[in-house]
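Sequence in, structure out.
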Amino acid sequence: MIQRIFISSISFLLLLFSSSFAEVKGNGVQVKAIYQQPEQIEPGKIVSTSFLVSNHSRSEEELLEELALPPGWQKIVASELPIQLEPEEDQVSVVAFLVPVTSPPGLYQICYSLKSLQNHDIVASDTMPLVVLPVEKLDLSAEVKPEQVLAGEAYLVGLYLVNRGNYKVKVTLQVKSSPPYPVKMESAEIALEAGEFQKVDLEVKTDEKIKQRIRQILEIKAAPSESDSHFVPVTQTVSVEIIPRVTQRADLRNKIPSHLGLVYAGGEGKGNFQIEFYGCGSVDKNEKRKIDFLFRGPDLQEKSRWGKRDEIRFSYLTRQWDLHLGDRSYRLSPLTDRQSYGRGAEANLRTGKFTLGSFFLKSRWGDAGRSKVGTYLSYRPYAKLNLKGNFLIQDMNQLFSFQDYEARIYSLQTAFKTKKEMQLNLECGLSQSVKGRKSNDFAFRIDWTGHLHNQIDYSLERIFAGSKYLGYLNDTDYKSAMVGFPIYRELRGSLLYHDYANNLDVDSTKGTANREKTFQAGVSYSSAAGTQISLDYKNLAKTDCALPADYNYEESTIKLRMTEMRSKFSLSTEIERGRFEDRNKSTKSNDLERYSLHANFNPNHKSSYNFYVRIGHSSFTGNLERTKSFGISSSWHIRNRISLNLNYRWDELGLDRYQKQNSLSSILTYTFAGNRTLIFKSQWSDFNMGDGKAFAFWAMYNLPLEIPLSKNDGQGALKGRVYYEEESSKTPFSRVILTTQGAMAITDQEGEFIFPSLEPGTCFLQLDRSSIGLERVPTEKLPLIIEVKTKKTTEIEIVVVRSGRISGRVKAFFPASDTISGGVKRSSSDSLIWLDPDGKEGFEKENILRRIGNTLVELYDEKETLRQVTDQNGWFSFEDLRPGKWILKVHADNLPDQYYLEKKELQVELKQGEKKEVEVRVLPRLRSIQIIEEGEINNK
């Protein structure tokens, strides 16, 4: 049944032309992405694109830009200036950002939105589809590892192995340890699908006998199998210091991390204070319940460009349900209510495969008093299939062409995803007006994205919302299709088509009736050295069908783009030439041109510099006015406490109202002890229009707090003393570091320590060997195994003594002989001699000595076992030993043939501070030769 629905949906989609995640809106202000290359790029490149902002309302609009980028992506130049649009005015906004080299392959949505300065609502938005090209690459990173480890402990290293290629690969892991401590790994062979990652845990056992801090190096190599040999093997190095790990004391209460901020903002001779208190965290220890809150006031929106509205909100979240109250963005679905800001309440309940939710809100600013009630029910029968029904009631008093009635909107959604990176989203909606002038209309939306044969990326979208449809999308018809495909090796091609229309009934009271078609084709080449070259052809035809027509033009361009990416420097240049025809004015031009350059320089992790310049004709506005833009920004981190960001921007827009505009902004941050911060923002701008200069500032002192909540009941305590014992006297040992359960304690002058709050049960108490000095050792094996009891205090004593040493040599003995000549040894007696490394000339001693070396020696008592391998001359040494009876055992696996150990085990009694040397004798098995038959040898 599901397959039949899926095949029918695919056939329906092919008839409708769909595409790229673009969002359009038919209410007043509109945003339209200008889909320039690169739609397909490699990680580490700079992307530049444009958005056309149009005001089809009958009032002037003042808007703030927001560019939503994936985490880690970096804006080249950020704009803090608002956009001011007269009725029926268009303006182009150009944005540029850097895609990090660590971005995984796939399809991304870059959302550009406009927020009203008056009411915080997102009045319009659009998204640009961006495909980060897949590469044949493995990525191995150490996500979890300790910086310091107590000697003798086992520690874990958590590795993430990522297949950043576009098809399945089999990988073999190899680990090399220096010093050669034993390393355990669950599986050395891993199969990864495209884009899949797997966590690999390594357990490393360190050596307890070390006398000083050492740094252990783990070299982990991930190499593909022979069938996937074109993947380049990767190596990750992990360094761990083998000493005690000092951490903070365990806490008795669960605490919510929060911040208290005191703000002063203003400009142009006015300003005021504001208090902001917010936090987020877990209520209980198991993180099953969380809260999120914000309290901010009074309102500073009118005092400063950075002034924020007064807001109050609170959220309580559990695994089964969550509750949200106050000022926030409420959302349902793209065809009902994609996002509305207001004061209200929302509740969501999750049970099994069902999720039920509902919200109510009332707008606070702009359309003040407008209310909405939304509810939904979703059902997920399978992990990759989700079905959802939405219902919205809204008071439409403030919407432009509909007055004095209430609207009801229904929609059905489905989301389907396969293992082959294919995702299908469907939604159909119906709206009804139930008061005043009654009208019904419908809408549908289809998104289809994915990959074919691990090489072809595609994105299809279809949106239709009738002229009387009352949802978020309305009076819109949109079709789009995009495909990226390989041509030859690193050479790829792309095709793009868009068809957009609004004001479908050509109603003159709604302003323009835009009809827009775009076709784009391009090729791109990427080299392994980090250079990318692309060439694109684009044709844009845009017409206003309402009379009199505001515009009717066509633009065709060819653009060459070159990008260079190095470890610390990125450079992107564009050259665009083409022709322009204005059919309203009956004019043509073959001299359309645009040039741009973007640069990013990161000399180190503490500083960054960005620069851009653009000159040429304005983009996609229906005129040939020339524009110029220049911007530079930089950031510095000074002594890990001070950071400074500076941003300067100069624009000559070629518009009557704003011929030139300048802005200079800065952000200074100072971090005090305890993570308290002081942030100061300032901006100076000059619009070059009479009294167009403006200054705004914003300062905030941020104090981190922790709100204590529930108490951790049922804890236990551990206390004790550490003594140094010598000649039957015990001296308190101060400044000894002990750790257990992630908590730390240090002994005082009396040698006493305490862990006031520990989890009941078995704990392992470690003592920092470096804190007791050289040649000292506890009389008990570390870590100490202690049983912590609930609501009780366990007491212990630790005695430290002078450590001893047992060293020695494995010696090979041979029968004494009268002569040694030519490597032949003639025995004349049963006596034995030892052949040292300077043995007699002519005897084959090298082979014998090599075999005696590299022999496993084991030293153990009732508490622990120590092992080491002899050097090439047979020497071994066990340091920092406790006094007592030890047993020394040499394993015979590596002895020469026909030789044996004189004694399999040696008992050694070691006193405090004693250093003993032992001798391990290796003897030959003497055999007699019996002649069983006499005769002569005939040499004939």
